[in-house]
Amino acid sequence: MTTGGPSFDDRTIRMVVHSSVAGSRARITLSNRYSATPLDVGAVDVAVQASGAQAERGTTRNVTFGASGHITLPAGAEAASDVVPISVGAGENLLVSLYVPGSTGVSTWHSDAFDTTYLASGDHTGDDGAGAFGATRTSWYYLAGLDVVPATAKGTVVAFGDSITDGYRSSTGTYRRWPDFLGRRLGAGPRPQRLSVVDAGIGGNRVLTDAPNLRQGVSALKRFGHDALGRPGIRDVILFEGINDIGNNAGPDGQPLTAEDLIDGYRTLADEAHTARVRVIGATLLPDQGNGYYTPAAEAIRQTVNQWIRTGGAFDGVIDFDRALRDPANPAALDPAYDSGDHLHPGDAGMKALADAIDLRLLRS
């Protein structure tokens, strides 16, 4: 979640949530973490999605917080709901409907959901139908997480990164981000699925410094403990971030970036994970020749950083995304088969190739 979202007044916000694992009970987390005013929530419910904003009839469940259907979240606060009895399948979608009766002020949100959110005037929680939901957005508001009491999974792997992990330029509403493909790989084996996948990517996010665009979030150094290590059941983190630091030449204290700056940031994150007894797996940074981020100096930093990720020994494992997606004829550029067209972000085929490059034996299940 980040700051800078729009204000709402007397609206029902219906959001789609995609689960990587099956289970029979669930809870949600609402966040007012990046807002400056209290958030008054009049009602919340959850249902199995039929299609669009329409719920499967008979699946809608009221969501309570401390047995109350109403909650006021102070500025900066979060709250996990009571457990809701609802069945969800691996790869299935739930609809979370949130009614805010008054003006919210600037919202805590996740700008780039790559899914559709539906808006209605007034309180339409409890509606199975989609008729009242005449407006759409492509962001999540105040909804910071879905936890499922799983049928078989015993832990969580967090994909932590920037826009590539967030799913930028993947197809909206089709769940073709690389963490989605990873979740399906984990569920497709001969044994029951043992790990869930949480996507903690934020477009434009940086390791060392806060992005000047508020929706791109505070630095990885600031958010890692909450957004990654704070996830329920956390076992592993896949750390795949740094290209925005390099492309913006954004070193600490406003100085030009050096490879050692970024390496020091990775060391700090790895140490934080190990202190929490969480394994952290480093992923090499993708090539970007042809994109505005590319310069010979930036490429030299990327190459130095990638070599350190491969050989530095700070991580519990390494995934060589660079090797998997680079053009064999020009290693400074993405393979055209995987390039979305901007020479920085993979398209759907590239997202799948990232997930396929992960040796599942690296993940602690």
From TrEMBL:
RNA-binding as UniProt keyword: no
Pfam families on file: Lipase_GDSL_2
Membrane spanning stretches: none
CDD domains: XynE_like
Classification via InterPro entries: GDSL_Rv0518-like, SGNH_hydro, SGNH_hydro_sf
MF terms in GO: hydrolase activity
Segment forming the signal sequence: none
Keywords assigned: Hydrolase
Annotated SGNH hydrolase-type esterase domain residues: 159-353
Name the UniProt record assigns to this protein: SGNH hydrolase
Native source organism of the sequence: Streptomyces alanosinicus
